[in-house]
Amino acid sequence: MKIKLSQELIVQSGKTIDGRRENVRIAYGCSITLQFVYNVIIHNTHVHHVVESHGGLIRDSKDHSGFRMVGDGDGFIHVVNNDYTHWKMYVIGSSTHHTISSQVNRFIAPNEPFAKKITHRIYVPESKWKNWVWRSEGDLFMNGAFFRTSGPSSSSQFTFNKKNMSETKPGTFVGRLTHFAGALSWK
């Protein structure tokens, strides 16, 4: 059985993809996405020759749909050693109180003057989000990119729990770290 996905297949927790008694191949299209899930079983399913794609459309009723964006869930977000380019509006956004630590990323803003900001608080007045803890440490900002921090100004008032943090390299290493990132081209 050959399957060519036109959009990514997003798998939630507690799911099984069972290819027993079949030769299941997901190829030459989009791939499977497993993110922040648990108790997932994928058995006898070959995934190869996948192509890069954007997030798919999500339909929540017969007359409304929107684009799938990165979700931040509830709690602590650690953004580390990434290379961000070509964004249209912003890179990191949230509509609820989350703790966000951005460390040693490279942000190269697009040329559009209205698209230089990295952070965006969605549908929330500044009187609320000004206490949210959003920090940037060692990030590399290029072409006018900027990160608007919030929360306590003194590091003694708030420190990140180091056991929740990933090991980092300096922001100048990001190009080398991400050079081969992305969809593989199988020939």
From TrEMBL:
The keyword Glycosyltransferase does not apply. One of its GO terms (molecular function) is pectate lyase activity. InterPro entries: Pec_lyase, Pectin_lyas_fold, Pectin_lyase_fold/virulence, PEL. It comes from the Eukaryota. Keywords: Lyase. Residues 1-113 form the Pectate lyase domain. The keyword Ribosomal protein does not apply. This is Pectate lyase domain-containing protein.
